[in-house]
Amino acid sequence: MDDVLVRAGSLARTYVAGGATVTALADATFTIRALDRVALMGPSGSGKTTLLHLIGGLDVPSSGEISWPAIGPVGTLRPGPVSMAFQGPSLLPPLSVIENVALPVLLAGGTEQDARDEASRLLDVFELTELAEKLPEEISGGQQQRAGLARALAGGPKLLLADEPTGQQDHVTGARMMEELMLEADRVGCAVVIATHDPAVASYCKTRWSVKDGRLITEVAAWA
């Protein structure tokens, strides 16, 4: 069975701003396989988020090719196989925290009870149980970020994409969240790609890629 989740060749993304063409990503070629753990490193504005969005099928490349051999065409990526934990607020405002986390299970065809059970379990993992019935506006940015991680894992994805997943956490909480995130990824059996500028976060991944000025370098020594 093909274990290649994502294959990209000469991937590029440009856009026009103020009458000028801006290159957000240029000539990126890479492969992501089942169970990979990849830290995508680079400073803010380097192209990490653009690349994550392309990998997740949330954006369309300007040129080059991208496919998901072990998943299917782009229309089959969600709900289920590919999930993303966003850097900014992403919870649906009308839904409670537990309803937000349960949503991927429901969209994938699970029962309401199954969805609520899984959401409850993940809220406990990410230390959010007491906030289950709160609305997103009633909790902090860091708590929303953790709820977003829980939601990204709830559907049992094959590939989890996380954009600066500890950006709104203190050092101790961030380390604890990364440990739980990786344990859950192991339990689900999904590949993980994390965009970060934090070496401490990157240390949880076996493979390290670098993005600078829209250029992806995959030939970076893996962590020992």
Residue-averaged pLDDT:
92
Shape: globular
How big a fraction of the residues is strand? 25-35%
- The level of helicity is 25-40%
**The CATH topology:** Rossmann fold
Task: Briefly summarize what is shown.
The protein is α/β, with parallel strands linked by helices and 224 residues long. It has helices at residues 48-55, 97-107, 112-125, 141-154, 171-188, 199-202, and strands at residues 4-17, 20-33, 37-41, 63-67, 82-85, 159-163, 191-196, 207-212, 215-217.
Describe how the helices and strands are arranged.
Elements (H helix, E strand, L loop, with lengths): L3 E14 L2 E14 L3 E5 L6 H8 L7 E5 L14 E4 L11 H11 L4 H14 L15 H14 L4 E5 L7 H18 L2 E6 L2 H4 L4 E6 L2 E3 L7
Parallel strand pairs: 3-7, 3-8, 5-6, 6-7
Antiparallel strand pairs: 1-2, 1-4, 8-9
Question: Could you explain how this protein is built, in words?
Answer:
The protein is α/β, with parallel strands linked by helices. It has one domain (4-89, 137-217): 3-Layer(aba) Sandwich (Rossmann fold), CATH 3.40.50. 31% of the residues lie in helices and 28% in strands. The chain is built from 6 helices and 9 strands. It has helices spanning 48-55, 97-107, 112-125, 141-154, 171-188, 199-202; strands spanning 4-17, 20-33, 37-41, 63-67, 82-85, 159-163, 191-196, 207-212, 215-217. It has a 6-stranded mixed sheet. A 3-stranded antiparallel sheet has the order 2-1-4. Helix 5 (171-188) links the parallel strand 6 and strand 7. Helix 2 crosses helix 3. The radius of gyration is 17 Å and the shape is globular. The model has no long low-confidence stretch (mean pLDDT 92).
